[in-house]
Specification:
The structure is a single chain. It contains 2 helices and 8 strands; from the N terminus they run H-H-E-E-E-E-E-E-E-E. With 151 residues, the protein is an alpha+beta fold. Strands 1-2-3-4-5-6-7-8 form an 8-stranded antiparallel beta barrel. A hairpin with a 4-residue loop joins strand 2 and strand 3. The relative contact order is 0.13.
Amino acid sequence: MKTRTLISILILVLALLIICEGYATDKKVTKKDYRFVSGTWINEDYNTRAFSAKYVVHRDGTFDTYNRTSDTGKESSGHYEIIDKWTDYEGNIWYKMHTWRGVIVEGKPNDYELHKYSNSGKVLEYISRHGDFPTEMDENHLWYHIYYRQE
């Protein structure tokens, strides 16, 4: 009876390890993630606000921003690096990113960003902070942004 119990426990532990490994591999950042986040993201409402209205993200880890959705001249450019990722129970994909704009000082990022991509891949929400990553997606946060993938 003890042998049967021991074997059952070992099988259970092995099954848990296999399941956990499946979730752990979901967190590995790959080139596919850079392809996923790339594209042109716009928000017409930002044409009259202080936020960039157009955000063009490139697969090579660079981005460009524009004051208005119709602008062709860049407002600014920068680099980004995906640090972590996960998928929530609704199928939304979350990323933690470092971004650099302008002069890079000692390799430290200018901003720590929390990005949320809708399960459809068509809506991007993010919050930007200095010094540490945001812990939640708060629509009332001063640096909350929302963009829509341009088709």
